[in-house]
# Entry
Amino acid sequence: MSPSVLQACHRRRVPVVATFHNFRQLCAGGTFFRDGRTCYDCAGHRGLPAILHGCYKGKAITTAPMVLANLVQRKTWQTVPSAYIFLSDAERGLFTSLDLPASRCFVKWNFIPYGVARGTPRSIVAYTGRLSEPKGIRLLMQAWDLFESRSDALGLRLAIAGAGELEDAVRHWAATRASVDVLGLLSHEECGRLLSEARAVVVPSAWPEPFGLVIAEAKTAGVPPIAPAHGSFPELICDGQDGVLFPPGDAKALADILGRVETAPDWFDALGDRAWTSAKAQFGANSNLAQLESIYHFAISHPTWREPGEVRASTSRRAISAAPVCAGRTFGPRS
# Structure
């Protein structure tokens, strides 16, 4: 929706809860990703570097209106919503330069319904997602080549499901590698079956994703995820407990983990069992609904059209109780 809906609700005194699914209010491209790497140039410069680089549709002329809109709407975003929902603590941290009122900010993970029942894992590592630069598909191809160059060929396979601008490049690369299957765009049910058969799911994203949907789906299917340690991923994965993290952009480190999938399958099966257990606490319907209702109650009790005053901290913290703990850190809604 256009941000004009915020003003329409404000005029009619309807409380608004705004959920941020990307970084569009700070980055013309919405991803903090440019020229094959993460880029935070606009975070402190109100988007002006984006015009220079043509970050929206590759041209300055198409980027300038996006930057101008963000500048014009900045005050609206800061003053109209009664509450803000971020999909991860990492996403919330990247929004610091927007100067939103901290007492109205919450972190709530997405709800993920449990998928197909876990079957007997096969010697498959699955990738499900868009075939694009930000999703890290080139890193995965590089890591697989490193893995195969030193593997004893025990039979591990890579299954790639998805479509996107790099699909032709991925198919060309896979055509000369007998261990790689490119499955194209699958239905939700077909993806579920692929996940249920995989020993691990790899999510090599190069951009700092606000929420790792594939990670959550894998864990609810009892499959351990492999992902870089940036963005929301360290919040969703307890490294070595219900998944594995690697340094962002490190193809060698990812290749080492792929080698371990091949040589230590029982360890990855155990990770999958713990992933299924932790997913219930992280993405369960009851706790997610309780958190969402708490945020809605907060928004209703603290509309922005009232006289300025201190927001009651006890109310804004009500949703914290269901937040899971990983490595000593509490994640979930917080004020």
